[in-house]
Design goal:
It is a single chain. It is built from 22 helices and no strands. With 471 residues, the protein is mainly α. α4 packs parallel to α8 and α4 crosses α15.
Amino acid sequence: MDRENLEGGQIASPLLVRGRADNEGDGGCNGSLGNGVDAMKSDTSSTMVLVLSTCVACCGSYVFGAAVGYSSPAQSGIIDDLGLSVAQYSVFGSILSIGALLAGVMSGKIADLLGRRCTMGFSEIFSVIGWLAIAFSQGAWCLYLGRLSLGYGIGLLSYVVPVYIAEITPRNLRGGFTTVNQLMISCGLSMTYLIGTFISWRALSLIGTIPCVLQLLSLFFTPESPRWLAMVGRWSDCEAALQCLRGKNANISEEVAEIREYTEILQQSSKPTILDLFQRKYVHSLVVGVGLMVLQQLGGVNAIGYYASAIFESAGFPSSIGTIAIAVVQVPMNLLGVLLMDVSGRRPLLMYSAAGTCLASFLIGLSYLLKVFRGMFALGMGGIPWVMMSEIFPINMKMLGGSLVTAVNWFGTWIIAYAFNFLMDWSSEGTFFMFAIAGGLTVVFVAKVVPETKGRTLEEIQATMNPIIAT
């Protein structure tokens, strides 16, 4: 892009034109790639390095799920062994969200300062400390501190894992690969439910350290995000990392040129502040990101994740059978979401998932059919808000926007997790009817506000949602 165009107004127009050409072609898989078959291959195929890098990142997602699911099977054992009251256990369950909220506020800054890989490693140190503190605790305060440290670790992971995966994957695979994040969260939660049925809460906490250590060791062999490397000016490393991710014979010139063009445009803007995030040109991204996270939490999923055993018991259903049923149902539904993400698109899955959770919450209010709820949530509302968060903010605003969205999510998690037991005491049926209303509002919100991002590069998405005007 020449200097004249840069100073003349709508500097994102080449990306907009390319995005329209891709979408008018064959779904964005090879639209306007002018470099022939090699370029097409680099845009549509995965490599072993890409798959392994995603798997390493998603070890953090497993830790996330295990941490959320831990308080359910551990509840009776901890209360009996340490003599905690219901109020004290509510603090233990919800303080995870306080740690995650603190991390969420800092997550974008840390990820931009240290890089995506180092941030994942940094978060796992806090996670290991947290698991060990819980495992060897002899009283409530040690439990609280361990849970707080664990929350800080997963708060960082909740931001950096989907961002890293979105930044390393080609456009046509990004949705499916990023949704593996939610699949592994569900796997972590499900395995914790299953294993926790048979072993003590201390042993379960020690097992939680295994994926943390596995990720720490594997990160040494994982490439850094090419887009982060471009953002900090390490262009040779950016090209090397992208070549590694796309394959040694892939033609990456088109993708490198697009990343370079967009990065150079953004670098000519002044350094953003939190107030800049509320400018008109970023309003759409902000509304979509915050709105999806708020509605996700108002749907009540984390309340069920934290206290599933107690909910089943209050409904007169064996807690062990109920939690195993949730574990069995949600992983296949998440896998279905992964397979459909880049076929059906984000919006249809979000609307279908939100409608399903709305109906399921209504049914739970009548009969406690939790198996239906977890399955429908896993299909779309569990993972897609995090996918959208990683896609909708331009690289210069991703730190601020992503941090705000992550913090909003964890603040909502804390409110729901802490208040849930009290709401259930007030009215079990009324609590789930409230969740049903939130599910209905989500359907309307997605239909009216959320854009479709399937088959578009991150630069194209950001150019259409946040048109950048030269000053």
